[in-house]
Amino acid sequence: MARAVAVGLSAVVALPVGGAAAHAGAAPGASAPALSAPEFRMFSSELRIGDSGAEVERLQQRLIDLGYWLDAADGEFGGHTLHAVWALQKAAGIDRDGIVGPVTRKALDDGVRPRAQSTSGDVVEIDLERQLLLVVSDGEVEKIFTTSTGSGKTYESQGEERVAVTPKGRYTVFRDVDAWDPGPLGSLYRPKYFNRGIAIHGYTSVPPHPASHGCARVSVKAMDWLWSSGRLDIHSTVLVW
């Protein structure tokens, strides 16, 4: 059952999230300057997974307005809302606890968004430090996803000891599989391969920290969106940094 949450002030105002002026004078990879907005005091207590209601819906709409991917603003704080909150917390450099308390509310107030590394073209970027996947067009971040990349741990595959690393570099999607793709380390959902056996793919477990064998994991529904968007078609650019 959802916890009772105090009703706050006005509903969320949809905000523009692009514009060259927002990028002037800042280093690539830094958090973007705050988007101007009325104070975002939608609730007075914490929101977390399992909650529901109007305050959750306003939270979801604010995240969507800022570019954090969500499938819907339905008023239910489920797994996809948790992923969007993690993505915001990663971009803000705060604890990745998935709870919308005072510090996370401030990040929402401030309109925190990550900055792209690339400046031209359509690029999907993987920010290893912050564990974010960004859909970027001409330097403007359009969509923001939480991701989980190589854990850095050693593992054994086909009789060899390897290290779980997602290599940095600029790559091109060269193969995809529109299904669960079985492999020696498990099945990958609708993978888009960009570096030998390394892919962006959907998975049932996407923790807020590096945990994969080298691929970039997103949720299953997020991967469906990436397929339908056309931004990860064959020959698309993937920048890992």
Task: Write structural notes for this entry.
The chain has 241 residues and is an alpha+beta fold. The protein folds into two domains: 20-110, Orthogonal Bundle (Muramoyl-pentapeptide Carboxypeptidase, domain 1), CATH 1.10.101.10; 122-240, L,D-transpeptidase catalytic domain-like, CATH 2.40.440. Helices cover 19% and strands 23% of the residues. The protein has a five-stranded mixed β-sheet with strand order 3-2-1-12-6. Strands 7, 8, 9, 10 and 11 form a five-stranded mixed β-sheet that branches. Strands 4-5 form a two-stranded antiparallel ribbon. The termini are far apart.
Could you list some keywords that capture this structure?
Muramoyl-pentapeptide Carboxypeptidase, domain 1; L,D-transpeptidase catalytic domain-like; five-stranded mixed beta sheet; disordered N terminus; single chain; alpha+beta
In short:
Residues 1-26 form the signal peptide. The chain has helices at 54-65, 79-92, 102-110, 220-229; strands at 122-127, 132-137, 140-146, 154-157, 160-163, 169-172, 175-176, 180-181, 188-195, 198-202, 216-218, 237-240.
| N→C terminal distance | 42 Å
Beta-strand content bin = 15-25%
- Computed structural class: alpha+beta
Which percent bin holds the helix content? 10-25%
Mean pLDDT: 86
**CATH topology name of the largest domain:** L,D-transpeptidase catalytic domain-like
Specify the number of helices.
4
Sum up the overall morphology in one term: globular
How would you name the CATH homologous superfamily of the largest domain? L,D-transpeptidase catalytic domain-like
The Rg value, from CA coordinates, equals 18 Å
Describe the biggest sheet? 5 strands, mixed
CATH top level label of the largest domain: Mainly Beta
Topology as H/E string? Answer: HHHEEEEEEEEEEEHE
Total of domains: 2
Mind telling me which CATH architecture of the largest domain this is? Beta Barrel
Strand order of the largest sheet: 3-2-1-12-6
- Unreliable stretches: 1-28, 33-39
Query: What's the total number of strands?
Result: 12
